[in-house]
Amino acid sequence: MSNSTNTQPESLHIVCPHCDAVNRVPSAKLSAQPVCGKCQKALFTGAPVDLASARFQKHIERSDIPVLVDFWAPWCGPCRTMAPFYAQAAQRLEPQFRVVKVDAEQAQDLAARYAIRSIPTLALFKGGREVARQPGAMDAQNIIAWATQNNR
Fold this sequence. Notes:
alpha/beta, Glutaredoxin
């Protein structure tokens, strides 16, 4: 039994984590390790993508898959503790999610724009809009569960 409200579009726009080109990928091929049409590198690396201001906007606005963002800073102990768990979560969440890290110290404009008051903070974006937020460090299982639950 299929539910027409739950069907994925025939193809999705995926922003390349390497060159930021927008690629159209058939939904059925999302898990088949697609490569960028421009730079020929993998569209999904199984690791968080470090993004700064201009690149960040393109990824959240042009990607048809949800973008999970970790706002963090290198001096933050809980951020450093969560980093390996976030990397593990990226391996499990891709290609259904783009998993991103934003250094709030380097990208202070983004931290201000999204009113990041504590780090680490996870934020989930869909269609260019923030749909969920969770401050505080989590392990990989909880990151995956939180992202999946808030993507419904």
